[in-house]
């Protein structure tokens, strides 16, 4: 089939990336039309208070006119609120940190929007994502087909390492990929800007969008307070001494040491070294080499425990004392070797592991970071410094029902162990890890302890440039 016979709907957002995507498709001879989707119309939640979508629509319409393609509009705000925003509120209420951009792609751009485009006669949907797709082929170079005889597609990272957005598409399935085009996935951002300026597109110098997908920049606590009520609670600083007596932390250290390769055992000495970061390095300075046979022998129960974060239970007792010339009777907390109440907050559900800003607590040499939140007791636990033990974990778990593979040929069988490169947040450098498939879930064991592993965020694994699978962190 020639390009002119393929009708492509471009999700034209008003930004430079989707504009150049439309431009390239038009030049390649496709039958192109633009569809702008409105997903949010509540200006009161944005920091600047403007209806951002109205300006975006105006620019998108000018771009379509400049390129010479039809322009359509669709309001998907009800679907977006139900399938993305309500999900956000639910996750934050449970003390988890969702990724709305991943959900927006799975539920809106490549579902609700795709269905709308197909009704308008589209064969394919194109977006301005920096990622690539290609047909799977076997060793002889023949296209791979699924059981129904349909072609199988791979999802690849974008060619621009600074803009790769494959992470946000980690939940797409084969049906969605079969309808998707990513025209700018194999070019870099400066080239996209150059093409836009050469074509005199109105979006050529438009700044990239920031904040929550289709909502824009928001003050997150204010945004969440539409549904989640503020409630004052304690901010507890956890001291290093706590980990020496915490049974779960010691268990994790013992299990990790038991997985060392023989050469690591000898190098670390009889007692073994603590598996934790050194200094302020954002990842552990020491790469740990694990023995795959020892990982395979680890019981499910121990893997589950290893994947769980340290939980904090520090009790504070009060005492009375007399103060001042009049010896006024007052109450204070007794000193505790494991921690101290250092401030107050407006609701544990408004904070996330690894967060630094918004605590507003002084008197420390190094910054404070959130290391845990307890939404039931409404307590935030913090640690001083970027190398605090509470910030780092070596293992995470994805529940069995949440494991997602881009195509079935990649799926791991129960008991299988593979090496992948993994990221747990957008733009994080890829990290080396073992993936361990068990009946109780997928376990990701990192070569280096990872900072700020956060439940609700997506862990995504790659083999070279290929994005193989993903799942929300338990």
What does this protein look like?
With 474 residues, this protein is α+β, with helices and mostly antiparallel strands. It has a domain at 3-224: HUPs (Rossmann fold, 3-Layer(aba) Sandwich), CATH 3.40.50. Helices cover 26% and strands 25% of the residues. The protein has twelve helices and 20 strands. It has helices at residues 16-27, 52-67, 77-93, 100-119, 174-178, 189-198, 220-224, 241-245, 247-258, 262-268, 292-296, 300-307, and strands spanning 7-11, 31-38, 71-75, 124-126, 131-135, 153-157, 180-181, 233-238, 318-323, 328-333, 339-345, 368-374, 379-384, 392-398, 404-405, 417-423, 431-438, 441-451, 458-463, 466-472. Helix 1 (16-27) links the parallel strand 1 and strand 2 (31-38). It is globular, with a radius of gyration of 25 Å. It starts with 6 loop residues before the first strand and ends with a strand.
